[in-house]
Specification:
Largest sheet: 7 strands, mixed
Helix content: 25-40%
Number of helices: 14
Strand content: 15-25%
Number of strands: 25
CATH superfamily of the largest domain: HUPs
Radius of gyration: 31 Å
Number of domains: 4
Bound molecules: adenosine-5'-triphosphate, magnesium ion
CATH topology of the largest domain: Rossmann fold
Structural class: alpha/beta
Strand order of the largest sheet: 10-23-24-25-21-22-11
Low-confidence stretches: 1-7
CATH class of the largest domain: Alpha Beta
Length: about 550
């Protein structure tokens, strides 16, 4: 068991080695990284990996003045919303990072992108193409055939400047023309075959309104954003590897103030989940989940609501290391880190999810005693709490068996069990309804056994959790399970929606210790012997409407099934 997950130093990796080497030879006075989300959805745990890498590197090099920018890559007016900007900021902060004064919006650079485009035209390195999107696609050729030049490819500079000015002035309709870089139609790298760098979109933008009707493409805008912010190392995922030549081409040919270096690393993929914002949006929009913060989603807001501690998520992101090899990490590793962290930090409380009543026959009528129950079995510093105990208690239905096998050490006819932190009781009988379901268990307490060891001659080998019937409260408890039934939902024949787990959410009415009903939203604890639970940050109302989410069960039930 690790002691302090949050302090685990990141292993070095090829990116950190490059950065250290660059600093050592004085290539840059310091290191500047960035996290550049597109505000078109909520962040997920894959983004957490990129956040931990970029902000982590800045933190590790703080002595040299290193920093990490939070930059919203908001160059596409159609899919972006202010709600996403706010959620992204919340998520980065929750993970424990701070961008300080370095919050940027790519849309603030629209004039610069435009000026770079004009500059490329003036150099004879860009042209306005009036072919349709289909024609451009068809004329790009393929791996064995070079592209066919557009009839507009050799238009004179002055004419291109005029056409681009008219594009910008809104004279053309969407799709009427585009601006393309003039690079190499025979390149084996398709990204260099005269990529489109500007297109017309008559759409309002969340930041610039209707000031622009032309918008830059990602491959053109991204290197310029990095260079403008003096980013030294632009870290991105492996799918951008064959975009690096185009990244470098724009840096080479545009009037930029610095020369950032793009380095690619393997993205985080998790089993039993999906991680594309587009697909997550579909689950949200089609009502398969309750929202972006549904605790079953791998979104950062979802896992926060589920009760995953930020430090455990950070530890998980670091433990996988940074590599160049794409793979899939088993979600059980993430659950392991969450459990490991909560095992150390979460206080213990008692709740009964499937209650059956035990009536203590020899309990003095009306009397209430206080049991002193430890808040953490291995950490005495967490102290004890008083839990009221009267003549009737709830216990878990499966902690009683009418005809128990030898190895069953909990309650059964004429058997003993200890109520955690309180008395040993002996079962004296039970009642059943017409369906054979136990309705009540009769028992007696063994006087003098509270806070004392088991008396001679009594066989009592287990302690079970319980809730006092008179003072216990009821609560809505949401038992979450994996959202998908298969390891790779994206590979499912019927699509990922066809492999949604119908049992991913079970809601039960539980009984809980009275103090839990008054807990603040976000309070996280272990329900003894059941798992880790958190008071839901959206629906839980202290005192009036207790709602708890299961963060993770105590054991991985899936590894048994598998
Ligand atoms: P998605 O494909 O899930 O929609 P994206 O890559 O389009 O994600 P961006 O907002 O563009 O989302 O991503 C911001 C940053 O996060 C990028 O630098 C991207 O490389 C990184 N990132 C996205 N997904 C992952 C992942 N699974 N693992 C590591 N980094 C990721
Ligand atoms: Mg993207």
């Amino acid at each position: 068991m690790s002691t302090e997950p949050e302090s685990a130093a990141p292993k070095s990796d090829f990116i950190r080695e490059i950065i250290a080497a660059d600093l050592a030879v004085g290539k840059h006075p310091t290191t500047i990284t960035r996290f550049p989300p597109e505000p078109n959805g909520y962040l997920h745990i894959g983004h957490a990996k990129a956040i931990c890498l970029n902000f982590g590197i800045a933190g590790e090099n703080a002595a040299t003045g290193a920093r990490c920018h939070l930059r919203f890559d908001d160059t596409n007016p159609e899919k972006e919303e202010v709600e996403y900007v706010e959620s992204i900021k919340t998520d980065v902060k929750w993970l424990g990072f701070d961008w300080g004064d370095h919050l940027y919006f790519a849309s603030d650079y629209f004039q610069f992108f435009h000026d770079c485009a004009v500059n490329l035209i003036e150099q004879g390195l860009a042209y306005v193409d009036r072919q349709s999107a289909e024609e451009i696609r068809a004329n790009r050729g393929n791996l064995t055939t070079p592209g066919t030049p557009s009839p507009d490819r050799d238009t004179p500079v002055a004419r291109n400047l005029d056409l681009f000015a008219r594009m910008r002035a809104g004279e053309f309709k969407e799709g009427g023309c585009v601006l393309r870089a003039k690079i190499d139609l025979a390149s084996s790298n398709m990204n260099l075959r005269d990529p489109v760098i500007y297109r017309i979109l008559h759409a309002a933008h969340h930041n610039t309104g209707t000031a622009w009707c032309i918008y830059p493409m990602y491959d053109f805008a991204h290197p310029l954003e990095d260079a403008l912010e003096h980013i030294t190392h632009s870290l991105c995922t492996l799918e951008f590897e064959n975009h690096r030549p185009i990244y470098d081409w724009f840096i080479e040919h545009c009037p930029v103030p610095s020369r950032p270096r793009q380095i690619e690393f393997a993205r985080l993929n998790l089993s039993y989940t999906i991680m594309s914002k587009r697909k997550l949006l579909l689950l949200v929009q089609d009502g398969h989940v309750g929202g972006w913060d549904d605790p079953r989603l791998p979104t950062i807001s979802g896992i926060r609501r589920r009760g995953y501690p930020a430090a455990a998520v950070g530890h998980f992101c670091k433990r996988g290391g940074i590599t160049k090899v794409n793979g899939t990490t088993h979600v059980a590793l993430l659950e392991f880190d969450v459990r490991d962290f909560l095992n150390q930090t979460a206080p213990r409380r008692m709740a009964v999810l499937d209650p059956v009543k035990v009536v203590l026959a020899n309990w003095p009528a009306g009397s209430v005693e206080n049991a002193e129950v430890a808040n953490h079995p291995q950490d005495p510093a967490m102290g004890v709490r008083d839990v009221a105990l009267g003549g009737e208690v709830w216990i878990e239905r499966d902690d009683f068996m009418e005809d128990p096998p030898k190895k069953f050490y909990r309650l059964g006819p004429d058997r003993h069990v200890r109520l955690r932190g309180a008395y040993i009781i002996r079962c004296t009988g039970y009642e059943k309804d017409a369906d054979g379901r136990i309705t009540v268990i009769h028992a007696e307490v063994l006087p003098g056994t509270m806070g004392a060891s088991t008396p001679e001659g009594v066989q009592c080998r287990a302690a079970i959790h319980w809730v006092d019937a008179a003072s216990g409260r009821s609560a809505e408890v949401r038992l979450y399970d994996r959202l998908f039934t298969v390891e790779d939902p994206d590979a499912a024949e019927g699509g990922f929606v066809s492999v949604l787990n119908p049992d991913s959410l079970t809601t039960v009415t539980a009984v809980i210790e009275p103090s839990l009903a008054d807990a603040e939203a976000g309070f996280s604890c272990q329900f003894e012997r059941l798992g880790y639970f958190v008071a839901d940050c959206v629906d839980h109302q202290p005192g009036t409407r207790p709602v708890f989410n299961r963060t993770v069960a105590l054991r991985d039930s899936w590894s048994k099934k598998a």
